[in-house]
Amino acid sequence: MKTVNIQAAKTHLSRLVDSVVEGGEEIVLAKAGKPMVRLVPYVSPRPPRIPGLLAGQVEEAPGCWDSGDNPLYEAAKGPMFHGAVEEPPQG
């Protein structure tokens, strides 16, 4: 990351923008040695997601939610903690 004084940036703005766009370099613009802003390459925003785009195209297999012989399913039905569990103080 390169730091450039704003006065120098005014003179060399086109060159600084080229180094950011082509080289992917980040440049910090400073005023009296204090960082003020950062020049970074522009990234186009993603188009918004469209809900239901795959509606009717995805199916779940029959019985996909049945536990079967899955030991994790049986373990999840039991207590979360094993051993003595202290009650929180009342107050």
Briefly say what this structure is:
The protein is of the alpha+beta class and 91 residues long. It contains three helices and three strands. It has a domain at 2-39: YefM-like fold, CATH 3.40.1620.
Which properties best describe this structure?
91 residues; alpha+beta; YefM-like fold; three-stranded mixed β-sheet; elongated
Describe this structure in words.
With 91 residues, the chain is α+β, with helices and mostly antiparallel strands. It has a domain at 2-39: 3-Layer(aba) Sandwich (YefM-like fold), CATH 3.40.1620. Helix content is 26%, strand content 16%. The protein has 3 helices and 3 strands, in the order βααββα. The chain has helices spanning 6-11, 13-23, 71-77, and strands spanning 2-5, 27-31, 34-39. It has a 3-stranded mixed sheet with strand order 1-2-3. It is elongated and about 70 Å long. It starts with a strand and ends in a 14-residue tail after the last helix. The model has no long low-confidence stretch (mean pLDDT 84).
Categorize the overall geometry. elongated
Q: In CATH terms, what is the architecture of the domain at 2-39?
A: 3-Layer(aba) Sandwich
Measured distance between first and last alpha carbons: 54 Å
CATH class of the domain at 2-39: Alpha Beta
Over all CA atoms, what is the radius of gyration?
29 Å
Question: If you consult CATH, what is the topology of the domain at 2-39?
Answer: YefM-like fold
User: Total strand count, please?
Assistant: 3
Unreliable parts:
none
* Helical residues, percent: 25-40%
Strand content: 15-25%
Secondary-structure element sequence? EHHEEH
Mean pLDDT: 84
